[in-house]
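Protein in question passed on here:
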Amino acid sequence: MEQMVDTFLLHLKVERGLAKNTLDSYRRDLGKFTGYLRRKDVSSFTEVDRRMIMAFLEDLHNRRRAAATISRNLAAIRSFYGFLVQENLTGTNPSAELDTPKIPKRLPNVMTVDQVATLMEQPKPSNPAGLRDKAMLELLYATGIRVSELVDLNLADINLEMGFLRCLGKGSKERIVPMGKSAIGAVDDYLQRGRGKLGKEREKNAVFLNNRGGRLTRQGFWKILKKYVRLAGFQGDITPHTLRHSFATHLLENGADLRAVQEMLGHSDISTTQIYTQVTAIHLRDVYQQSHPRAKD
């Protein structure tokens, strides 16, 4: 069964060009499913029927997995069996008629403009690491790129003179995103005064390096962000995605076109971007309640 999963993952990588993080997610989810089948003494995917998949999803639910996690596991199984049917490795897709769990829509966690400004003040540009950290935070908020896209940036992807960067999003889709003055200045400072002093054996292409000179990882950035969130005295869960959410929400609050924000975020479906309009509507309602003389009558 593991060999069939590996064949499927190779298909996703070669034929569909999926990114490493997506492939890793498929591998984990199908690994859970395979492990569950092993525990139930099932030795072949052809033995699996609809009830077995339902029992697996119920097992995830009983272990308090979120609806989004269960939905993602089902999507992985459905895609996997679609591949097996296509390759004539099995006759039917037992997951085809299963309903996807309903996922409650949660509004994204968004920082205020003042909170963002406070966070940006935390890195001290007195040393190479501080210059790097300042540049990364400014760039995340200025462009709304994902943290995986941030750490994957190469020097050739950034054009400071034109004020644009190029990144590869989900499905290896390339997009061009503009940068603002603050981000351009912070990145320029880091490249001029900081990057060359990080580590002896520097990774030649990567923009953001760790203290040993290698490419910074997602986990490394998470640790850096947590440090500055703590220094800023913020409560609650502020993640790299919070800066992405804040980027989109603040643009819409200031009159940006929804389609333009969709393109900058790299969303394939505008319905994904539209959740930010709900946040904006709540903000407008709050402003109205506070400002209109007859709002509280």
Observations:
- The beta strands are 158-159, 164-168, 174-178.
